[in-house]
Amino acid sequence: MHNYIKSTLSMSPVMPVLTINNIDNVEYLFEALINGNLKVVEITLRTDCALRALETASKKFPTLKVGAGTVLNNEDLISVKNAGATFAVSPGSTISLATHAIKMKFPFLPGVSNSSDIMNLINLDYKFFKFFPAQAAGGIEYLKSLSGPFPGIMFCPTGGINQENAKKWLSQKNVICVGGSWIIPSEINDFKEITRRALLASSLSS
Ligand code: 3PG
Q1: Which one from 127, 130, 144, 168 is the annotated catalytic residue?
Q2: Can you list the residues of the chain whose pLDDT is less than 70?
Q3: For a substitution probing ligand 1, which of 41, 181, 183 has the most ligand atoms within 8 Å of its CB?
């Protein structure tokens, strides 16, 4: 399960974070992202239609790696797995959630923002983390400092990342990819613009 997270996060430099308010046209949204060469998405569980969006993405777009974000408790883990998500992401971490994901054998990217969070989770054998909220929690300098005590631990920084600063984050040796919502404009109706942004994001590299 940790290998699944590793290979999934290695597929694209950017994992778009999608908060979907309206299920209409959601298929165009996934198509636009795929046309923009993005291969992995995190659909947040923050809206009423999030589970339906997960179902649509996983059933109709088999080439897309569909993850569920804002997974906060064990019940969320079960519902997103049932909806077809192949991995889960959380903004922070609890031992209960991290242990439950292992019991379910469900790939999980827990959120961390400090050394104590990381220590709790490496005891459970986790090696890949969402660093959230990346800018507000200390930015690149903070993440760089974590590579000293935690060599080999890799992060997907998310929160405050955009097309302009993503390259700098991606050049850090402990960054496997970055996450962010900037690819999707607040009004999801300009699918050409989404593809344009996705192409720019997918061509980023360290
Ligand atoms: C998340 O849930 O990961 C964040 O809301 C994404 O942060 P961003 O909107 O600053 O990219």
Answers
A1: 130
A2: 186, 206
A3: 181
